């Protein structure tokens, strides 16, 4: 099935859409994660960008600075020494920002959950996480799955707070 | 050259007491902590030995019961193809010993690692900082009676089970 933009436009026509849909569509189709990796999961993440899996087709392009990124893929073991840096990078990112936690270590400490005194037992202890990708390490397909899941979440977002709409409607009725 | 012969050479030239342990398959020379730098300098510079490569330097904690710590030096002579294991026994309360960074530059990071994880202090080391743990980490993780801290920068260290 052809999308709206694939159809031929004549002259002078207009497209009507919701601001929410337009903005969400823009956000989810140009998802720019910060280019960094922490441990073995990073190898799988890099592979996901290789020609075999081709993350570029989703508009997912790594950026070299947090100020141009709107996403973070935490790929690998977060040590306490690194935790401060991860948190600082997250804080430097522009909003709206999204976080994918990739692999067992980042999700919950992985194999280090009991005796790893140096490992943060889940990156959600330092920054909020939107999507968890399970696996140790997850295959590139799993990471793509996580990105598609996040895209669905972004598609559901709305700029309008439902409460504000309710209040407006109430005012109109009164 | 056997470990005994090397020990003999050390005693003749450096004028220090050393002990030779040949009970284990890996023979070792045990040196007093104050003598280690002198002994290492001799082992490197002597023409019959030429131990020009410090392959590894490790710290070991034997626990509060034994109340000792050890530093093990694995040396290799590239020109002569000799291997040698040196050992320094330390008191666990005051684990102090001279640095060998002036003999082999490779000792720099190794000594920092031993300091960071096991907690012995190397005197005259020019930059004895932690190398693996963060600067403000509490305690030395490879000590036998190490207890991990509860929180680090507000993050709970332990994994909580419900």
Automatic annotation (TrEMBL), chain A:
EC number: 7.1.1.-
Coiled coil: none
Top-level taxon of the source organism: Bacteria
Entry keyword set: 4Fe-4S, Cell membrane, Iron, Iron-sulfur, Membrane, Metal-binding, NAD, Oxidoreductase, Quinone, Translocase, Transport
Cofactor(s) for this UniProt protein: [4Fe-4S] cluster
Membrane topology recorded in Swiss-Prot or TrEMBL: Peripheral membrane protein
Catalytic activity from the UniProt record: a quinone + NADH + 5 H(+)(in) = a quinol + NAD(+) + 4 H(+)(out)
Keyword 4Fe-4S: yes
NADH:ubiquinone oxidoreductase-like 20kDa subunit domain location: 40-150
Enzyme class: translocase
UniProt cross-references to HAMAP family, sorted A to Z: NDH1_NuoB
PANTHER family: NADH DEHYDROGENASE, NADH DEHYDROGENASE [UBIQUINONE] IRON-SULFUR PROTEIN 7, MITOCHONDRIAL
Subunit annotation: NDH-1 is composed of 14 different subunits. Subunits NuoB, C, D, E, F, and G constitute the peripheral sector of the complex.
Protein family per UniProt: Belongs to the complex I 20 kDa subunit family.
NCBIfam families: nuoB_fam (TIGR01957), PRK06411.1 (NF005012), PRK14813.1 (NF011388)
Name of the protein in its database record: NADH-quinone oxidoreductase subunit B
Species this protein is from: Flammeovirga yaeyamensis
Automatic annotation (TrEMBL), chain B:
Cell location: Cell membrane
Catalytic activity reported: a quinone + NADH + 5 H(+)(in) = a quinol + NAD(+) + 4 H(+)(out)
Pfam families tied to this protein: Complex1_30kDa (PF00329)
Domain (NADH:ubiquinone oxidoreductase 30kDa subunit): residue spans on this chain: 30-150
SUPFAM superfamilies: Nqo5-like
Domain of life of the native organism: Bacteria
Membrane topology designation: Peripheral membrane protein
Keywords tagged on the record: Cell membrane, Membrane, NAD, Quinone, Translocase, Transport
Function: NDH-1 shuttles electrons from NADH, via FMN and iron-sulfur (Fe-S) centers, to quinones in the respiratory chain. The immediate electron acceptor for the enzyme in this species is believed to be a menaquinone. Couples the redox reaction to proton translocation (for every two electrons transferred, four hydrogen ions are translocated across the cytoplasmic membrane), and thus conserves the redox energy in a proton gradient.
Protein name in the entry: NADH-quinone oxidoreductase subunit C
């Amino acid at each position: 099935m052809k999308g709206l933009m694939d159809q031929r436009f004549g002259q002078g026509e207009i497209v009507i859409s919701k601001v929410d849909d337009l903005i969400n569509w823009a956000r989810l189709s140009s998802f720019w994660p910060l280019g960094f990796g922490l441990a073995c999961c990073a190898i799988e993440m890099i592979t996901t960008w290789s020609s075999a899996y081709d993350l570029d087709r989703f508009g997912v392009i790594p950026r070299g600075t947090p100020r141009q990124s709107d996403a973070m893929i935490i790929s690998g073991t977060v040590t306490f020494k690194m935790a401060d840096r991860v948190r600082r990078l997250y804080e430097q990112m522009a909003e709206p920002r999204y976080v994918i936690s990739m692999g067992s270590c980042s999700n919950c400490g992985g194999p280090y959950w009991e005796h790893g005194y140096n490992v943060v037992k889940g990156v959600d202890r330092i920054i909020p996480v939107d999507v968890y990708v399970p696996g140790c390490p997850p295959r590139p397909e799993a990471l793509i799955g996580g990105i598609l899941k996040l895209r669905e979440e972004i598609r559901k977002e709305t700029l309008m707070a439902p409460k504000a709409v309710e209040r407006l409607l109430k005012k109109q009725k009164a | 050259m056997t470990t005994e012969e090397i020990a003999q050479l050390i005693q003749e030239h450096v004028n220090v007491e050393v002990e030779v342990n040949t009970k284990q398959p890996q023979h070792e020379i045990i040196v007093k902590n104050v003598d280690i730098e002198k002994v290492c300098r001799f082992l490197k510079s002597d023409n019959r030995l030429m131990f020009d490569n410090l392959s590894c330097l490790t710290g070991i904690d034997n626990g509060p019961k034994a109340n000792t710590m050890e530093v093990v030096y694995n040396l290799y002579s590239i020109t002569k193809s000799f291997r040698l294991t040196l050992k320094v026994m330390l008191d666990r309360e005051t684990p102090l010993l001279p640095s060998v960074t002036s003999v082999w530059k490779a000792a720099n990071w190794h000594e920092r690692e031993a300091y960071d994880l096991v907690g012995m202090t190397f005197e005259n080391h020019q930059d004895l900082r932690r190398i693996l743990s963060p600067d403000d980490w509490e305690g030395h993780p490879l000590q036998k009676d190490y207890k991990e801290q509860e929180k680090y920068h507000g993050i709970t260290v332990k994994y909580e089970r419900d």
